[in-house]
Design brief:
Elements (H helix, E strand, L loop, with lengths): L3 E2 H8 L3 H11 L5 E2 L5 E3 L1 H15 L4 H6 L2 H11 L5 H14 L2 H38 L4 H20 L10 E5 L8 H12 L3 E4 L6 H11 L3 E5 L6 H14 L4 E5 L1 H5 L1 H4 L4 E2 L3 H10 L3
Parallel strand pairs: 4-5, 4-6, 6-7, 7-8
Antiparallel strand pairs: 1-3, 2-3
Helix pairs in contact: 3-5, 3-6, 6-7, 7-8, 8-9
Amino acid sequence: MAEYKIKDVEILTGIKAHTIRIWEKRYRLLTPSRTDTQIRTYTDAELTALINIAMLNKQGIKISRIAEMTDKEIANKVVELSNYDHGETHIDQMILSLIQLDESLFRNTLTVLIKKIGLIETYQQYVIPFLERIGVMWLVGSINPAQEHFISNLIRQRLISELELLPPPDPSKPLVILFLPEHEWHELGLLFYHYHLRQKGIRTIYLGQSLPYASLLESIRSLKPKWILTSWIASVDSKYIHHYFDRLKNDAPDVVVIAGGYQIKEHFELIQDNVKGFRLLSELDSLIEETIH
């Protein structure tokens, strides 16, 4: 059973810590435990209850009214609200599915969103904010690896299943190779770029996680892509990333190297002569379009 500090709860629920304290004191909605140093800690069950309360409050139900409701009444009202399109509610449902390891809830939430606005907008408007909200806690250990792997794999599975619905690319078109370098395993962003490019009719080949450098060069020589696209998230030494792209430019001088991810942004001044960086999909599209002829 996990224990969450009030800052974790603030991030996950979107409710300010000050407000949570008022709710506890004035309405007795929760009775969190305290450490020897009087720091509040919350269990999975308490966090789930607070997310449900927050969902109702965000939809206009006064906290005084919620405080009068039984647990069953709150749960029933949350189910009722889930049938309507409330943006913040969808993210709250994703967080609940993370805490409870509820595959059905997460899958159903994604399905509703994808049917309504498509995969691209779902990923940008909901999945990315959801991942950002819980990302801080992944780093500090408030959310355990099992929860992280659970959600990442569900998102990965959905991206792959949506990719399979797209028609195969035209083999006569210029090629983009997508890959992650040897140290990198965070592939959700790269899979999303793969889907986006395929949906636009661009020919892509996905080589996946932790690709050895020699294998990348062999693929470039064999497939002769116009572009290679990569994403760097995991922490790397500045000398390593500079050497990697400098070497790649020398070994594959005719290929346009496009890269995104946190480490590209952090080290861009070192690699900008050899890499075209991007942060937004519109920037990726512009980089492809400006070099397509």
